Structure to design on (178 residues):
């Protein structure tokens, strides 16, 4: 079977600035930020290029959401840090930790795919109350795959980009009906 085509629809990653941040000062300085502490504890800093959001905690922890690749996260960090430096903050560059990678792929559905899948894989696939979806949980690497009757498969929970091909191989093996 050929490698499945997929696209990364979201990467969630985090890092620390190692400095306490005045979220009100940051919010008042930028028109691409939003901070309503009575609604949500973090400041939301939005970028258009790359298109993603950064959730900023006053503790200095930041979370990147919406990235499509790792380079976008690094570029967003650089832009945000430059803005912080211009405000008089002194952010430190620390490692970026990937917390979640979400992949989307499409498979060709056979007429009885769900019945066969459910019958063959009872130990690893759970039928949810929604009859249009199966959930598969893998342990190594850790990820969850959600299979939909439309043929869409979402793979969630990967923490390393290098595990995307392995996860897809596991899904391919799982869906091969003998």
């Amino acid at each position: 079977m050929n490698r499945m085509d997929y696209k990364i629809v979201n990467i969630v990653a985090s890092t620390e600035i190692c400095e306490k941040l005045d979220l009100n000062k940051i919010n008042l300085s930028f028109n691409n930020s939003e901070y309503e502490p009575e609604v949500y504890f973090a400041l939301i800093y939005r970028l258009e290029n790359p298109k993603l959001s950064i959730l900023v905690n006053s503790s200095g922890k930041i979370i990147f959401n919406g990235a499509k690749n790792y380079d976008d996260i690094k570029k967003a960090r650089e832009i945000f840090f430059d803005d912080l430096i211009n405000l008089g903050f002194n952010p430190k560059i620390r490692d970026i930790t990937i917390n979640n990678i979400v992949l989307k792929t499409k498979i060709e559905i056979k007429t009885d795919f769900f019945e066969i899948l459910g019958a063959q894989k009872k130990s690893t696939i759970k039928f949810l109350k929604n009859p249009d979806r199966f959930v598969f949980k893998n342990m190594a690497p850790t990820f969850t795959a959600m299979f939909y009757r439309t043929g869409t498969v979402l793979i969630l929970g990967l923490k390393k980009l290098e595990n995307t091909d392995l996860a897809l191989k596991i899904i391919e093996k799982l869906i091969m009906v003998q």
